[in-house]
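Example record used in the benchmark description.
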Amino acid sequence: MRPSKRFVKLLEKLFPQRFLLAKLTHYPIFRKIIGKMLFDKTNLTILPKNNIVEITLNKKIEPLENIIVPSKVVEYFIEKSNYHFIMNFCLCKEAMQCKNYPIELGCLFMGEAAKKIPKELGRLATKKEALAHVDKCRKAGLLHLIGKDKIDQTWLGVGTKLPLITVCNCCNCCCLWKMQSNLDEKLASKIKGMPGIKIITNEKCVGCGACTEGVCFVDNIKLKEGLVEIGKNCLACGRCVEICPNDAIKLIIEDDDFIKKTIERVNRAISE
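Model output (structure tokens):
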């Protein structure tokens, strides 16, 4: 089915109900149906912002420009792909009438399936244009989510036979995946943080609660006994690092192969 403007508007009206849909996946019959329809072979990785990454290695890296940052993953696939499609709006942000980020900064799709996306949703672009688009998204404060997404294959009507790489440009207020914490654990694991990256806290925490106020888009930060506690489902997106006024939260990289392993993960996902 090719998505019409009317169909897109219907999706936007139903969008706020995604949390209810996610909660239904805790019931086996709904989990099986919803999982097959919308999450089959989905494999997504969220990339933290470049400027909040600290490299933890046995030796100091100099100069700073030599540090390989998370956005290199997206740039790798842009250079590798022959087809790029830039959405002229973000379905999530438009559905929620986002007040914090530009609605016109939509997803980037790559791969042969991108040729099948209806032109009324955006346009085919060159590699240079695709690189400029994701750079603009980063400068606006959005996070990249990259990989294979059955939901996109379904609503775009491109099917599953041809490869489609999704690059969502996500905000913490409207993102579809805010429902992750409501999903059944198996389906929730379809979205991951980069391998070798984690969030840590330190003694500077004063329990101000700034990081608990709508910052974590998967609702994984709580205050416990007056101090911040990062839950086990942390995706290491790093938004909490940015918001902390006391420098009490850090995003670190423990594995210097984090870029390579993320690229390998995405390649495996799109080849399935």
